[in-house]
Amino acid sequence: MRPLVHSLVLAALIIPAAACDRSEAAGSGGAGETKTEEAADADAAQEAPNSLTRQEASEGFELLFDGQALDGWRGYGRDDLPGGWSAEDGAIAYTPEVEGGDIITRDTFTDFDLRLEWRISPGGNSGIMYGVVEGPEYSYYSGPEMQVLDNAGHPDGGDALTSAGADYGLYAPSADVTRPVGEWNEVRIVRRGNHVEHWLNGMKIVEYELGDDEWKSLVAASKFAEWPDYGMHHEGHIALQDHGARVWYRNLRIRRLP
């Protein structure tokens, strides 16, 4: 019986030691702990729309919408909000057949990294403009537009130049990476000097140099040639477009680039 007892004693000593080793490996500091914090940040961002992660806050991002108040927005060419725009279930929502019109940020921006999510109704159309100045009749007379669209349900989806993610009418997206209508799509628009990038659902799909010879040629051959303010202003507002369809925007945050 002694050998058996001896073996049981050794096993009793070894198993707790092994368990302790696994616990230390999983919970000790270093890269593992950093990864856990990053994962917690990501989870928190997913669970709490319209908030900044610790990393975003440290990088200088600011919220353009907190999920409730639209204080940072107003109608294009007016100081209040058109009646069709409201905060709805943590999103900026546009409801047609109420009072229409585009909305713009109260602040203006030059170089920036803009991030947000959009969701469109079936057959819907909207847009995100930047470098918008007031004076022209419409916001898109001055601001280049990232198209927001139900590609499958709207006629504009049949032309890559007017499909979701395009620099509307000028630069087509490299691929259609939109999610099914009704799902949220993640946007990133970066402007640094004249360099502009459109990202959609994690992929860079448009890249261009605003004001270079190619851009001027494309503008001259388009309807934008009739609008002298189009793309001419480095500093301007961010605009969300009323195009007659239900649309929702959330997680709007922006970082001013040096």
Tell how many strands the DSSP assignment holds.
13
CATH topology of the largest domain: Jelly Rolls
CATH class of the largest domain: Mainly Beta
Strand content: 25-35%
State mean pLDDT (0 to 100 scale).
Answer: 87
- Please count the helical segments: 4
State the low-pLDDT regions, or none. Answer: 1-36, 40-46
Helix and strand element order: HHHEEEEEEEEEEEHEE
Number of domains: 2
- Work out the radius of gyration: 25 Å
Find the CATH superfamily of the largest domain: Exo-inulinase, domain 1
**Structural class, from secondary structure content?**
alpha+beta
The end-to-end span amounts to: 78 Å
Give the proportion of residues in helices.
10-25%
Reported for the largest beta sheet, the result is: 8 strands, antiparallel
CATH architecture of the largest domain: Sandwich
Shape: globular
Tell me what you see in this structure.
The longest helix has 26 residues. It is built from 4 helices and 13 strands. The chain is globular and about 45 Å long. A hairpin with a 2-residue loop joins strand 9 and strand 10. It folds into 2 domains: 36 residues; 207 residues, Exo-inulinase, domain 1 (Jelly Rolls), CATH 2.60.120. The N terminus is likely disordered. The termini are far apart. It has 258 residues and is an alpha+beta fold. The strands form 2 sheets. Strands 1, 3, 4, 6, 9, 10, 11 and 13 form an 8-stranded antiparallel sheet that branches. A 5-stranded antiparallel sheet has the order 2-5-12-7-8, with no helix packed on it.
